[in-house]
Amino acid sequence: MNAEPINVTGTPIRGKGEVLLSVENISLRFGGVKAISDVSFDIRKGEIRAIIGPNGAGKTSMLNCINGFYQPQEGQIVFKGERRAKMRPHRAAAGGIARTFQNVALFKGMSTLDNIMTGRTLKMKKGFFWQVLRHGPAMREEIEHRRVVEDIIDFLQIEHIRKLPVGKLPYGLQKRVELGRALAMEPELLLLDEPMAGMNLEEKEDMCRFILDVNNQFGTTIALIEHDMGVVMDLSDRVVVLEYGRKIADGTPDEVKADQRVIDAYLGVAH
Amino acid sequence: MSDLATTRPAPNPLANPWIRAGLILAAAVAAILLGAQLDSSGTLYAVFIDPFQQMIQAPDLLVQTIWEGLVSGVLYALIALGFVLIFKASGVFNFAQGIMVVFAALTLVGLYEKGVPAFLAVIITLGVMFALAVTIERVVLRPLVNQPDIILFMATFGITYFLIGFGESLFGGNPKQMIAEQLFLPKGAIDLPILGGLVSLQKIDIAAAVIASLMIALLALFFQYTRIGRALRAVADSHKAALSVGISLNQIWVIVWFTAGIVALITGIMWGARSDVSFALEIVALKALPVLILGGFTSIPGAIVGGLIIGIGEKLGEFYWGPLVGGGIESWLAYFIALGFLLFRPQGLFGDKIIERI
Amino acid sequence: MLYREAGQYKSNYASDMAVFPLREDRIGLGVMLAIALVAIPFLGNDFFIASVMIPFLVFSLAAIGLNILTGYTGLISLGTAAFMGVGAYSCYKLTTFFPHVNIIVLILVSGLFSAGIGVLFGLPSLRIKGFYLAVATLAAQFFLQWAFVRVPWLFNYNASGAIEVPQRTLFGLPITGAAATAETRYFVCLGLVVVMTWFASNLVHGRLGRSWMAVRDMDIAAELMGIKLLNAKLGAFAVSSYFAGVAGAMMIFFWYGGGEAADVFSIRLSFNILFMVIIGGLGSLIGSFFGAAFLSVLPTALKFGLPALGVPLTGATAEHVTFMLVGALIILFLIVEPHGLARLWQIGKQKLRTWPFPY
User: Fold this and answer.
1) Minimum-distance CB partner of A131 among C206, C218, C224
2) What is the ipTM metric for this complex?
3) What are phi and psi of C332, to 5 degrees?
């Protein structure tokens, strides 16, 4: 067995560990439109993996394939060594994939607390009978999970909005609650779809800190889509670049930055 | 098949049409076998062979039944048309369309009974429908703008109840005779010798079909070639975008509700001429729902085709299979036909494939 | 000064998660129960109890049932009356087959049949949404109502097609049939409604309630959280129909005392219960009570109240006026407060909390 590669400060260099998820030759079509064609890449345990690309490059569709919301016509997804062509959304969730959404997809009629508690659904086992009584085991279970949820609320510093309905919260806070809901699932792989879209600088900095903390403290593997290049270059260990549904580059931030095709895709090519 | 796989998977194995068809077939076979076991006179025979034999033996009866279905289908389609007009332009699922039909017909007959000449009564009734459209826009739609669909849907329930109470206290709850003759609508029947039998076609039914086709053609032209029609289509696509280019939503809504009112009046006259004018029509109007399901909420051709399918389907079902279970299946058959279609095409007959995004 | 949360500290999660975390709310609930248990039976006359209170309780339970489906899970149903009918007819058949089993047990069991039928007609909800689903439930409404008339087995081949409610006793007291007094019937209804409301409250505050609301608010996200849409939706149909079924059985056994039940469980009843839920407030249990009170008491009040005030009203006119008023009130409520009476109640409480210094 090889020893983990260690850098000077003694922390393991991330992105060199074992592969958690790999996407192999994925193609996705909507009728005649090709959203993704023949894309392969992998995500290694513990790393922060960024997926970037111009609008309409197929980034969100890629995440949708990974957690089973879309089913690609071709290609396979290997997650934790299990190879499958089709993934069901709730199976993906049970397997430890959580995500946030580009346009916040919170449960608007519910409070922050309830929203994050739904993230615990898969971990709650007490059946219908105890649910009807809401005493004894059901209540103990509820309290146990409430404790976990309170830790997350504490971590994201959203104590003050605990009991407010999320529909009326400002956008930045909604994004934070959504992250909390995903964290409540204790995922192995966290998919973040533009976690910083529409945020001001301060909120972005907060969000960056949370993402790094999640990655460091819980060791959660993160795949994120982001348009802010500064953020991507600072946060991520490796970057995959998509354009028109194809992969055009894959590597460390510095490698990607220097790639001519990436520069062309972002700045345009002189004809 | 490959096309199907691109859209998101339904959460159950039933999503696969083959599995579903298989299950339905298996259930049907099981039910039949069970029936045949229990019933020595042969349920199998009664369900699968006898009705078709009847159809072949008496083709004139079959034609007659289809014609009956066609006619009630036209009327369903007319009610559905009123729904579609309003849904397209304002996104409101107008539950009150049925009662608007009754209300229009009652107003017409009520005015005539008060001594107003028939055609003047038609004009005044149109005025009443216009006033109704303005009132609904002012009192109901304008304050509720930007509310979720379900709230507006509920509000049209409110309109329904109000109009029931209002109509009954003005005109009384008793059924009335439609003034068909006074409006020069034809009476009597034509007997056509077809396939060795006689098929009797009521002239009023023929008139209904003709008038309905004319009206639909007119509406199509209106939508396609006038400035207001273009504005209507714009509003149907996006309220906000339409507002931003200076289309007045309020004006459009009044026009649309008034148009639906005109459709309601014509439906009311036709329906009233066949039976009589009463509040029982309110329940019949619910049949427009399965029609809409089949045709899609926004498609005028869909409403027509859907209406015809439902009308013919339920008449055939009632005539040939109804007696097997004691009759009266007309009250629910339409909904089951629609449900059956829905399971295979959730987006309706003419709808596009739904791609969910997130 | 009456209604304050200040000074009421929660030191553990259990007390923070209570349904009524505030002492004042708990006192209020106690007072309401005391009124229902003591004041109404002692002060109200038979007419009031039999024609106002019992219908109110039955409708409340049905409205809670529909609210679980429509308000909490976001699935529109226009077939509540049919599911109530299933409960009523199954209870009738059960009393025929098991005459010695306690009637309350039978009523609770008959809800299970209704739940089963509810799940069956809920199956299309996996595939279709919104108004489209309304058609599936309409299919249930018209098919079941047809069955209530056409299947004579359901009403024991009675020539008139009517249900005859037999006399049954609880602790020696007749609680159904002609000999049962209004008070006893009222107490039984009250007991059932209180217990079932408690169950409903437990459900909606727990894991199941949260998954229902998640499905309502954003079904796609709910699925990606690991909530199985199949289970959540069918579960909601089952629970909702169970409540409706029990309410339907109560309606025939404690309120109508028999009769041609097929006419009772008509589409109009379905609509009425839907209105109760809307006016009371979607997704609110207390709103179900408000809505039921409003829509079941209003017609009675108009019918008997206006003549008492000297306004001459014949029966038919009263009915028309009721229709117009109900229609107008529905619109008015939707304009003033689309979230129903329950939201008004909440706003009121909020005002009271900061009274007399709102800033």
Assistant:
1) C206
2) 0.86
3) -60, -45
